[in-house]
Amino acid sequence: MKPGHLFRNPVGDPTTWTTNLLLIWRQSVPLEETLAAFETLNQSGDIRQWGVSNFDTADMKELVGLPGVTGVATNQVLYNLTSRGMEFDLLPWCRRRRIPLMVYSPIEQGRLLKNATLRRVALRRSVTPAQVALAWVLQQDGSWPFPRSATPTT
After folding, report:
1. Which pTM was predicted?
2. Rounded Cα–Cα distance for residues 92 and 106 (Å)
3. Cβ pair 105, 80 in contact under 8 A
4. DSSP designation for 80
5. Do the Cβ atoms of 32 and 66 come closer than 8 Å?
6. What does R_g of the chain's alpha carbons equal in angstroms?
7. Whole-angstrom distance, CA of residue 145 vs CA of residue 133
8. Which strand ranges, in their side-by-side order, compose the sheet holding 101-104?
9. Cross-strand partners of 51
10. What is the rounded distance in angstroms from the CA atom of residue 64 to the CA atom of residue 81?
11. What is the pLDDT along the chain (154 residues), one digit of tens a residue?
């Protein structure tokens, strides 16, 4: 993939873009081509860092096994109290390599807020269920939650 193909519908003047983090997920374009484009964008100052999204352990092993790959900043993954499958392989694998995980949906799109156990823990601590769920993710070494709210109450 050529750097120009990474942005299909650019907004504003591309000469003024500076992106702190650019994430990719697996597509039909070979990973080597995408990473070469990322390296070009990084060297030109158009992006500061790059990461991946929803890469499993096999994908991550392939990624770090590619020549010249040294700078993956994060792997963005689904992780919360009800979605913990990555604890068996991906989480320890990333921890050993000091690759942080950017956790999306840490309160499971609001569904965790109704969980009876979580509500009891929150009540005992005088906090909200969302605070408990976020604190749980934060205590997992190398995991950083990125919650999103659709309304002021969720």
Report:
1. 0.80
2. 19
3. yes
4. B
5. yes
6. 18
7. 10
8. 19-24, 47-53, 72-78, 101-104, 143-146
9. 23
10. 28
11. 444 445 444 445 555 555 666 667 777 888 888 888 888 888 888 788 888 999 999 999 999 998 877 778 999 999 999 999 999 999 999 999 999 999 999 999 889 999 999 999 999 999 999 999 999 999 999 999 988 766 666 5
